[in-house]
UniProtKB/TrEMBL annotation:
<protein>
    <recommendedName>
        <fullName>Sodium/potassium-transporting ATPase subunit alpha</fullName>
    </recommendedName>
</protein>
<dbReference type="Pfam" id="PF00689">
    <property type="entry name" value="Cation_ATPase_C"/>
</dbReference>
<dbReference type="InterPro" id="IPR008250">
    <property type="entry name" value="ATPase_P-typ_transduc_dom_A_sf"/>
</dbReference>
<comment type="similarity">
    <text>Belongs to the cation transport ATPase (P-type) (TC 3.A.3) family. Type IIC subfamily.</text>
</comment>
<dbReference type="InterPro" id="IPR023299">
    <property type="entry name" value="ATPase_P-typ_cyto_dom_N"/>
</dbReference>
<keyword id="KW-1278">Translocase</keyword>
<dbReference type="InterPro" id="IPR050510">
    <property type="entry name" value="Cation_transp_ATPase_P-type"/>
</dbReference>
<keyword id="KW-0813">Transport</keyword>
<dbReference type="InterPro" id="IPR059000">
    <property type="entry name" value="ATPase_P-type_domA"/>
</dbReference>
<feature type="region of interest" description="Disordered">
    <location>
        <begin position="272"/>
        <end position="291"/>
    </location>
</feature>
<feature type="domain" description="Cation-transporting P-type ATPase N-terminal">
    <location>
        <begin position="99"/>
        <end position="173"/>
    </location>
</feature>
<feature type="transmembrane region" description="Helical">
    <location>
        <begin position="1043"/>
        <end position="1059"/>
    </location>
</feature>
<dbReference type="Pfam" id="PF00690">
    <property type="entry name" value="Cation_ATPase_N"/>
</dbReference>
<keyword id="KW-0630">Potassium</keyword>
<feature type="transmembrane region" description="Helical">
    <location>
        <begin position="348"/>
        <end position="374"/>
    </location>
</feature>
<feature type="transmembrane region" description="Helical">
    <location>
        <begin position="187"/>
        <end position="206"/>
    </location>
</feature>
<dbReference type="InterPro" id="IPR036412">
    <property type="entry name" value="HAD-like_sf"/>
</dbReference>
Length: 1096
């Protein structure tokens, strides 16, 4: 699959442990064509050999090891498919080769003008800092504040309102030049429109500014301090002051401050998971062990974590020139896609602008044809535009988005881009990483096998759920081995902290074992002190075991005990006996078969399995004070006694299964994209519900039927697990077909570029895609996705900068909350727009009748503006506070091509049904007011030329009374007010029916939305104020009216309410019927979930 340049020119930061490439894959990406920063990459044979020797995972099953080989081979292959084009492009943008990992110490000293013992001179360091700049990733170029503010003032709706204001000013200028009496109206109208744009623009900018400030507080990628040696003096400096050639020191718990060539190391292990996806700690030593810099052990990478031990090395790359900086460049050019809500608002503005110009131009031409002056015709055009522009919608959209962003912030979701709120509600596919999002990012002991039984481990504080006998001799022996053969240690000063939350210095596996030991023994560190360590062989990838020798706690027993842990098959081959119920039994075929059964059972769960054994050393051969020598190996490493197995897993978060179920109910497809092993990925996916109970993969079906995999019809498999190697060899059509065929998908062992391609493939199928990430390598996918979601706790600055939303609690369930809020915002915006559109018809028809029938003008421009900005804006905004309907998470995601913010059914219903009723109400009240003053309806027809004649001072009404021009103008303003009140009374009914789309307003409740109730009361109060406040006739053309004229539109309001309740009943009873065709049944995206989207 060839990814377009717009996809690959990325921006911002980077992503997740699980979605990372393997060292072989990343090496192949960055090293192909010699473009790796240090250059050099081995041949295919060397790569495969390096991949096989690389793994340091203590307890990987045989299946895992085999999977690694596949993974390495896939990464090193040519790659004809989806990821090949991405990787080729990636290689072309990286810097020329270096080979620092292959140079001798003397060559490094010469190259960087430094000393391996004294470091750089202070003067040279200062010069290099000036030359290279700070050791920090260059943040993505931000948008200037004035540009942000200008965007708020010049969006789609804003432009339309600027045009309307300009037309009003033109009309004012023309009328002023002719001395027209209504000169001031158009000036007031223009100023009001300008004020609306500026005020709402300032409000929107303020909200964006606040979000930006929140995001700016997330700065944790670069270490605060680094230990450096310059001129022979050791001291600490800010890490961003490091330069190439600096001699630095690290210890367990430190973050690597730059790309460093290791010169000295003692038991140093680093966590490269955020860079390469390797979940196991990686040893660092001075030796060059591989031609590829990602495979060699003498390079430590910027921003990775030193887990244990100490190391000293030379800085060889800083800032953007580090590996993390190179990967960051992948995300520096991905262009931001328009959000769905932005597209919808643009679509709405296009419709409104088109209708406004169409009707305005039509009225202008008709007016000119029937004899109106150019000025009069221009006023008509301006009036139509003002009537059609929803002046209050801009404020409504801003308030809706801001309100929802605040709601999400209270639920641990920080929204960087307000429009991203609705995007999450439109999401039809969530591509989620595993570690830290679906899981707790904390390895935990899960199962134990001893005495030929598999036991479930209880890792709670009270140990009330422990299923095995803790007084068992075999358990005591196993517990002793896993406690003593462990280099992890608690940080000091945490006695009051619950054990599961304590900070541990050590790798993930040993951390899990230490915490489990602490929970079961009570004081693991004190227990160790009772068995002093006299000798140790750390874990290494050659032996695949860790061994230590201890003296016994009983001073009367002078023997030593040797304890060992490691890969189960490697540990077992060194044993000749097995401990069963406290007795040592010969390790015969029966027990070997029992071991293999348990091992495969635990490994099949996707858990990391370790084996444990021990041996008491005789006092005769190994007396007290015996000099154990790890080099000479003057102690036995075979003939040991096998104690048992312990399996560990990063457990799912407790809230995730329910969240995944909610997604499934809502028609949202959850796809796991992880860098972990396929077996582990599949197990976690099944445990959280991504792979549902009873779903089978092709491999599962083949195993059940006992047939080869290629004989199984892939369409019979509901679930599918695809690893990075398979994905690399897929062409675009195969990936699309897999996404279409298998509803439940898991991608394992994927690289960042592959994650990018998965996102793009889903988007090509019409899905709105959300992507989660937290590590260095996810930002291209976060940027490309319709909405990127970064982790607030574990996430790097790079990922946070690339994302649209940040989860402060790193919890997948928060995404589901965001989905619900996003759907709610779209629903409420749609309700608000429907409410806003309805009054366009009663605002437009007075001018239509005025021109065609020549009646006195029923409604003025200023009056329309008061409807838009004073009375209707509050109910419109109050709909943003409407609670979600009970079925909101039971509907499938909206189809962006069909379920638009404004579509034909909604427009037809708002305009030609509710709008028509409101127009009838307005004209009924208008003709009633005219008739009661002596102007019967038939007399009003054709009356306009005489009515507006300034010189005619004796115009007779139906009773023969004579009216001066001033009296007629007073009556005209009275009609304006009557028509205004009529619209407002009907709009009260309109806002009540807009509370729901398909449920009855009685089901939703009339008083749940208190803001709406207040808005209605406020609307009525404003109407009364405009009618009866002294001075209004002279300022805004509002007149006091008779109280009975308030009652005329009320039957029409009741008709609107009853009519809509009958329609909703039809939608609920007969979905898809004619009722639903013109109602929001189909047009509002209310179908029940079937598929995630048409093609997915």
């Amino acid at each position: 699959m060839t990814a377009p340049a717009s996809l690959l020119r990325s921006s911002g930061p980077l992503g997740d442990v699980d979605a990372s490439p393997s060292p072989g894959e990343l090496r192949d990406v960055l090293g192909r064509a010699g473009s790796w920063p240090w250059g050099g990459h081995g041949s295919q044979d060397e790569q495969e050999e390096g991949g096989q020797g690389r793994r340091q995972e203590e307890g990987e099953t045989g299946e895992h090891e085999e999977g690694d080989g596949d993974r390495e081979h896939g990464a090193g292959g040519a790659g004809r498919g989806a990821v090949g084009a991405c990787e080729s492009w990636t290689a072309s943008v990286l810097c020329p080769p270096q080979n620092d990992h292959q140079l001798s110490v003397a060559e490094l000293e010469q190259k960087y003008q430094t000393s391996a013992t004294k470091g750089l001179s202070a003067s040279l360091a200062a010069d290099l800092l000036l030359r290279d700049g700070p050791n920090a990733l260059r943040p993505p170029r931000g948008t200037p504040e004035y540009v942000k503010f200008a965007r708020q003032l010049a969006g789609g709706l804003q432009c339309l309102m600027w045009v309307a204001a300009a037309i009003c000013l033109i009309a004012f200028a023309i009328q002023a030049s002719e001395g027209d009496l209504t000169t001031d109206d158009n000036l007031y109208l223009a100023l009001a429109l300008i004020a609306v744009v500026v005020v709402t623009g300032c409000f929107g900018y303020y909200q964006e500014f606040k979000s930006t400030n929140i995001i700016a507080s997330f700065k944790n990628l670069v270490p605060q301090q680094a230990t450096v040696i310059r001129d022979g003096d050791k001291f600490q400096i800010n890490a961003d002051q490091l330069v190439v050639g600096d001699l630095v020191e690290m210890k367990g718990g430190d973050r690597v401050p730059a790309d460093i060539r290791i010169l000295q190391a003692q038991g140093c292990k680093v966590d490269n998971s955020s860079l390469t996806g390797e979940s196991e700690p990686q040893t660092r030593s001075p030796e060059c062990t591989h031609e590829s810099p990602l495979e060699t052990r003498n390079i430590a990478f910027f921003s990775t974590m030193c887990l244990e031990g100490t190391a000293q090395g030379l800085v060889v790359n800083t800032g953007d020139r580090t590996i993390i900086g190179r990967i960051a460049s992948l995300a520096s050019g991905v262009e931001n896609e328009k959000t769905p809500i932005a597209i919808e608002i643009e679509h709405f503005v296009d419709i409104i602008a088109g209708l406004a110009i169409l009707f305005g131009a039509t009225f202008f031409v008709v007016a000119m044809c029937i004899g109106y002056t150019f000025l009069r015709a221009m006023v008509f055009f301006m009036a139509i535009v003002v009537a059609y522009v929803p002046e209050g919608l801009l404020a409504t959209v801003t308030v809706c988005l801001s309100l929802t962003a605040k709601r999400l912030a209270s639920k641990n979701c920080v929204v960087k881009n307000l429009e991203a709120v609705e995007t999450l509600g439109s999401t039809s596919v969530i591509c989620s990483d595993k570690t830290g999002t679906l899981t707790q990012n904390r390895m935990t002991v899960s199962h134990l096998w001893f005495d030929n039984h598999i036991h479930t481990a209880d890792t709670t504080e009270d140990q009330s759920g422990q299923t095995f006998d803790q007084s068992s001799e075999t358990w005591r022996a196993l517990c002793r081995v896993l406690t003593l053969c462990n280099r992890a240690a608690f940080k000091s000063g945490q006695d009051a902290v619950p054990v599961p939350k304590r900070i541990v210095i050590g790798d993930a596996s040993e951390t899990a074992l230490l915490k489990f030991s602490e929970l079961t023994l009570g004081n693991a560190m004190g227990y160790r002190e009772r068995f002093p360590k006299v000798c140790e062989i750390p874990f290494n990838s050659t032996n695949k075991f860790q061994l230590s020798i201890h003296t016994l706690e009983d001073p009367r027993d002078p023997r030593h005990v040797l304890v060992m842990k490691g890969a189960p098959e490697r540990v077992l081959e060194r044993c000749s006996s097995i401990l069963i119920k406290g007795q040592e039994l010969p390790l015969d075929e029966q027990w070997r078969e029992a071991f293999q059964t348990a091992y495969l059972s635990l490994g099949g769960l996707g858990e990391r399995v370790l084996g444990f054994c021990q041996l008491y050393l005789s006092e005769k051969d190994y007396p007290p004070g015996y000099a154990f020598d790890v080099e000479a190996m003057n102690f036995p490493t075979s003939g040991l006694c096998f104690a048992g197995l312990v399996s560990m897993i990063d457990p799912p978060r407790a809230t995730v299964p329910d969240a995944v179920l909610k997604c499934r109910t809502a028609g949202i497809r959850v796809i796991m994209v992880t860098g972990d092993h396929p077996i582990t990925a599949k197990a976690i996916a099944a445990s959280v519900g991504i792979i549902s109970e009873g779903s089978e993969t092709v491999e599962d079906i083949a195993a059940r039927l006992r047939v080869p995999v290629d004989q199984v019809n892939r369409k019979d498999a509901r679930a599918c697990v695809i690893n990075g190697m398979q994905l690399k060899d897929m062409d675009p059509s195969e990936l699309v077909e897999a996404l279409r065929t298998h509803p439940e998908m898991v991608f394992a062992r994927t690289s960042p570029q592959q994650k990018l391609v998965i996102v793009e493939s889903c988007q090509r199928l019409g899905a709105i895609v959300a992507v989660t990430g937290d590590g260095v390598n996810d930002s291209p996918a976060l940027k490309k996705a319709d909405i990127g979601v970064a982790m607030g706790i574990a996430g790097s600055d790079a990922a946070k900068n690339a994302a649209d939303m940040i989860l402060l609690d790193d919890n997948f369930a928060s995404i589901v909350t965001g989905v619900e809020q996003g759907r709610l915002i779209f629903d409420n915006l749609k309700k608000s727009i429907a409410y806003t559109l309805t009054k366009n018809i009663p605002e437009l028809t007075p001018y239509l009748i005025y021109i065609t029938v020549s009646v006195p003008l029923p409604l003025g421009c200023i009056t329309i503006l008061f409807i838009e900005l004073c009375t209707d804006i509050f109910p419109s905004v109050s709909l943003a506070y409407e609670k979600a309907e009970s079925d909101i998470m039971h509907l499938r995601p909206r189809n962006p091509k069909r379920d638009r913010l404004v579509n034909e059914p909604l427009a037809a219903y708002s305009y030609f049904q509710i709008g028509a009723i409101q127009s009838f109400a307005g004209f009924t009240d208008y003709f009633t007011a005219m008739a009661q003053e002596g102007w019967f309806p038939l007399l009003c027809v054709g009356l306009r030329p005489y009515w507006e004649n300034h010189h005619l001072q004796d115009l007779q009404d139906s009773y023969g009374q004579e009216w001066t021009f001033g009296q007629r103008l007073y009556q005209q303003y009275t009609c304006y007010t009557v028509f205004f009140i009529s619209i407002e009374m009907c709009q009260i009914a309109d806002v009540l029916i807009r509370k729901t789309r398909r449920l009855s307003a009685f089901q939703q409740g009339f008083f749940r939305n208190r803001i709406l109730v207040i808005a209605i009361v406020f609307q009525v109060c404003i109407g009364c104020f405009l009618c009866y406040c002294p001075g209004m006739p002279n300022i805004f053309n509002f007149m006091p009216i008779r109280y009975q004229w308030w009652l005329v539109p009320m039957p029409f309001g009741l008709l609107i309410f009853v009519y809509d309740e009958i329609r909703k009943l039809g939608v609920r009873c007969c979905p898809g019927s004619e009722c639903g065709d013109w109602a929001p049944g189909v047009g509002w995206g209310l179908e029940r979930p079937q598929n995630t989207c048409p093609d997915l």
